[in-house]
């Protein structure tokens, strides 16, 4: 990727998306959707499921309902949930670089929160199974807000829970939906794309886009070094 602009300053808190950013779960959930569709005899192309990445339950139901109808959507989602629960129970793998980044942030004393479109019971279970839950000061989920991403509600809640002004928070996201939510909350954003490659409209938002969590950590470390030498 191209050279990424340095962060203007070290943030007072870092807020993380969960699926596709910390956990390699987007591939799992899209695979479960595809398997459920096959079992129910639905002919849906593989790239169709990418349209649901980063979106909450209601948005996914609406997108699928427009294609196959509400009754078939309900059956497909229920089957997908059953398949996905089995995957979650087995443990979802981490995205590369997440543990070193979290350990570095903890060593700097920077507060950390999760802001995920997943419902609270499942989100907590996934974080616990991945041994990540204890690493965060707060976990905010779609169960806790009225409007899901791309509305800013969940990020504003995370900032409020941490007691940090939104403008002093840095968000790490993988999806365009999450990026828009964080920007709408008035926060700085570093996007680490997973399944979705940022298109021209996403790049025009003006946030930083990097190739890995390790690069995000390097930006933070550089900001810290600049702060100490200022």
Written account of the structure:
The chain has 230 residues and is of the alpha/beta class. The chain folds into two domains: 13-24 and 94-229, Rossmann fold (3-Layer(aba) Sandwich); 26-90, DNA polymerase, domain 1. It is 47% helix and 10% strand. It has nine helices and six strands; from the N terminus they run E-H-H-H-H-E-H-E-H-E-H-E-H-E-H. It has helices at 26-39, 57-68, 70-90, 98-108, 120-129, 153-162, 176-184, 200-203, 213-229; strands at residues 13-16, 112-115, 138-140, 169-173, 188-191, 208-209. The protein has a six-stranded parallel beta sheet with strand order 3-2-1-4-5-6. Helix 8 (200-203) links the parallel strand 5 and strand 6 (208-209). Helix 1 crosses helix 3, helix 2 crosses helix 3 and helix 4 packs parallel to helix 9. The radius of gyration is 18 Å and the shape is globular. The model has no long low-confidence stretch (mean pLDDT 91).
């Amino acid at each position: 990727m191209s050279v990424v602009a340095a962060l203007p300053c070290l943030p007072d808190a870092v807020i993380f998306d969960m699926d596709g950013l910390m956990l390699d779960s987007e591939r799992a959930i899209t695979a479960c959707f595809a398997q459920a569709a096959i079992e129910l005899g639905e002919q849906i192309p593989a790239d169709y499921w990418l349209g649901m990445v980063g979106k909450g339950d209601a948005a996914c139901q609406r997108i699928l309902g427009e294609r196959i109808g509400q009754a078939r959507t309900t059956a497909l989602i229920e089957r997908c949930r059953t398949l996905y629960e089995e995957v979650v129970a087995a443990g979802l793998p981490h995205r590369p670089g997440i543990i070193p980044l979290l350990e570095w942030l903890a060593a700097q004393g920077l507060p950390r929160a999760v802001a995920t479109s997943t419902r609270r019971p499942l989100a907590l279970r996934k974080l616990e199974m991945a041994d990540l839950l204890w690493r965060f000061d707060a976990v905010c989920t779609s169960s806790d807000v009225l409007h899901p991403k791309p509305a800013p509600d969940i990020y504003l809640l995370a900032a409020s829970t941490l007691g940090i002004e939104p403008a002093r928070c840095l968000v790490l996201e993988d999806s365009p939906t999450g990026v828009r939510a964080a920007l709408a909350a008035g926060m700085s954003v570093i996007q680490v794309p997973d399944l979705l490659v940022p298109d021209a409209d996403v790049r025009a938002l003006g946030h930083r886009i990097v190739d890995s969590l390790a690069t995000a950590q390097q930006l933070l470390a550089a900001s810290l070094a600049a702060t100490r030498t200022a």
